[in-house]
Amino acid sequence: MANEEDDPIIQEIDVFLARSLLEKLYLFQYPIRPASMTYDDVTHLSAKIKPKQQKVELEMAIDTLNPNYCRSKGEQIALNVDGTCTDETSTYSSKLMDKQTFCSSQAASNVSRYAAAVYKKGELHLTPLHGILQLRPSFTYLDKADAKHREREAANEGGDSSQDEAEDDVKQITVRFSRPETEQARQRRVQSYEFLQKRQAEEHWVHLHYYGLKDSRSEHERQYLFSQGHSLAENTELIKSPSEYLMMLMPPSVEEENDKPMAPSNVLSMAQLRTLPLADQIKILMKNVKVMPFANLLSLLGSGTDPTAVLRCVQQVALLVQGNWVVKSDVLYPKDTSSPHSGVPAEVLCRGRDFVMWKFTQDRWVVRKEVAAVTKLCPEDVKDFLEHMSVARINKGWEFMLPYDEDFVKKHPDIVQRQQMLWMGIQAKLEKVYNLLKEHLTPKKQEVQSAHPLLVSGEQRVNMAKAKVKQNYGQLEKEFQKQKAEMKSNDTSAKTDVPNIRIKEEPVSVEEPMDTSAHEGLNNGLVNGLHPAQGSMDPVNGHLPGGCIDRVTQELKAFVSSTFKKQFVLTLSELKRLFNLHLASLPPGHTLFSGISDKMLQDMVLDTGCKQILVPFPPQTAASPDELKVYALWEAGDTYDQHRQVLLELFSKNYRVRRNVIQNQLSQECGEDLNKQEVDRVLKVSFCSLW
């Protein structure tokens, strides 16, 4: 008490916190200047900064007229650095060391305890410092002088013999192929000193403008060191409770802090969590738990938390799935990250996880193989997605881990509707990215979801199976009786129609009717190319009634003739495809639906003036037998008949012919000197269906 009476309070000073230069104010610590550089005559020639590294480089002029400046030494340094010639790249254009470069380094890693103070009219204004930089002279000009010296020595030691120069130019080069970089190797490379130096060098310099002490701009900037508002409401950082103020005056000792058990860096206690803003609390909880009912989330945030504010914040970091909140994919996989399993970028992972979440909005069960087939991601990534929000069930798939939250859906229909609109937008994006089919978009039929799973005993399952067997047995019995009656009626009609059947006399062929199974979708519901309702021309034992043979021949000949007049060269496979397309365009009951075999089609091709070209395909070819049979119209009656016959003769000798050989052969046989464009036109007209 006696000491306090001897040291009375003389004056109370108001302290204000200025924010105008927050994160912009730096403190530069200059070295002790030589006598030739006084405070009044120092001139900043240039200044530049790298903001991320907090690195500054200043170029300051030296007073060469000062009596303390050694002129001979300055000339010697300039000569060593730039040599005798001066150009734009010279460091000292005046042939005299007239400037000095200073580079910065951080004086303290933590500058939160430091501030710049200005006292004015009984008020103390504080501005926190963003960095404290110590400026030291840079001697890079000495490196430049050494480089010049080495160049001069190399030039003097170089031989005059051209033979030696030629031998020096010949160097052995070793070629190496780099192996794929593993994840561990990439992490080591990123943490290496060389990589960090390269990253620092890649940052661009930001050039600054220097204003003197008495400049009007400097006076304007100095005004920002004063607090703009003097009300206490704007200086809440300086208003502390007694306990907080006491803690600031007497912080806990380092020993007490070391005695506390160290928790992992990714673990937050509930006490630490509740000191954060509400949005950050919800984000951390959802990121760790991944799936959570709204009631559980409220209980973790503590009593007194506003549910409306929680709803507003949770929609920013989570999506509603079956009445529960599931953390968003971009929260788990931030931008510029990748998968630890496959190295896939975060954007692809987010799309795949969104697809899994969307599938759970459609059904409680998801099959892992289906997800992998659609997303094309590795099994480990897909497994991570499913483990976030579901539980594996043997022989069933993956079931959503939480029951359907009916209470939340009933209490908050507006939130549910808004989330449904969000899911519609996500579904539209997934459809474009993955080209989803209808089977993926249509949800499976399922029972009404309830909070309590339905339990079925073994006896009930047996009874249900017996009832299903009885029901299926009755349906199968009815179908069998119906088929039996139809077979009897068909046998009776066949016996009455046999005397009127006329059998066509032709040699027996082992070839089966032409296969149209690959094009059965083009037959408009036909069975083997024939409408079941048409009974007047039904073949019996593979043969047609006598009155239909001529009409079938005429129709088939007309089709073959018109086809080869449009496309002069066709393989049997292509001809069969065109014939099936022709059948699909015909009305029901047409004569060609009576059944056309491969042999009938090939015979008709030869009857219409076409020839088979025996192209010598290589024996290891992967083409089918029908693709190896080539037919061509020998005479079409146009100007290209002779050219076409020459080409066919060439291809009957070799399956691959060079263009210059074709051009020479056409010129010899046809007596015309054809250029490249004319040869291309002949090839296009003659082989339009093949080339």
Automatic annotation (TrEMBL):
Residues 146-169 are annotated as: Disordered. The lineage of its organism: Eukaryota, Metazoa, Chordata, Craniata, Vertebrata. Residues 444-689 form the DNA-directed RNA polymerase III subunit RPC5 C-terminal domain. This is RPC5 polymerase. GO terms for biological process: tRNA transcription by RNA polymerase III. Residues 146-155 have a biased composition (Basic and acidic residues). InterPro entries: RNA_pol_III_Rpc5, RPC5_C. GO terms for cellular component: RNA polymerase III complex. Transmembrane segments: none annotated. The gene is Polr3e.
